[in-house]
Design goal:
By secondary structure, the chain is of the alpha+beta class. It contains two helices and nine strands. The strands form two sheets. Strands 4-5-2-3-9-8 form a six-stranded mixed sheet. It has a three-stranded mixed sheet with strand order 1-6-7. A hairpin with a 2-residue loop joins strand 6 and strand 7. The longest helix is centred in the first third of the chain and has 14 residues. The protein is globular, with a radius of gyration of 13 Å. About 25% of the residues are buried.
C-alpha cells in the first residue's frame, strides 16, 4: 500500500506548512459525491487519528484514513501550474473513469 507525491507536490506541501507555521503533513481522503461517484478530499493535517495510515514520500507525511485507502491505494499526487491555475492532480490506478475536471472518479 502506498500513496506517493511527485517532487512538485511534496515541495508545495512543505512550503505551505512552513507558511502556515506548522502541521504534520497532507491529509488525503475521499467522499461519495461528484459527477463520477467519488471526490478527493485534500487538506493539511495537524493530527493523526487511530484509523489513519501514514506514508512518507518526498520528505512529507501523507495521512489517509483506512476506509479511503481502499479506493486510493497506489495514487500518485502531482501539483501542477497552468497559467494562473494551480492544483493537485491525482493519478489513481483504481479509477475506472474520471470527470472532465479530474476532481471526481468512479471505480
Amino acid at each position: 500500500m502506498a500513496i506517493t507525491l511527485t517532487q512538485n507536490a511534496a515541495d508545495r506541501v512543505r512550503n505551505y506548512l512552513e507558511q502556515r507555521g506548522g502541521g504534520l503533513g497532507l491529509r488525503l481522503g475521499i467522499k461519495q459525491t461528484g459527477c463520477s461517484g467519488f471526490a478527493y478530499v485534500i487538506d493539511y493535517a495537524d493530527t493523526v487519528e487511530a484509523n489513519d495510515v501514514v506514508f512518507e514520500t518526498g520528505g512529507v507525511s501523507v495521512i489517509v484514513d483506512k476506509p479511503s485507502l481502499e479506493y486510493i491505494d497506489g495514487t500518485r499526487v502531482d501539483f501542477v501550474k497552468q497559467g494562473l491555475n494551480e492544483a493537485f492532480k491525482f493519478d489513481n490506478p483504481k479509477a475506472s473513469s474520471e470527470c472532465g475536471c479530474g476532481e471526481s472518479f468512479n471505480i
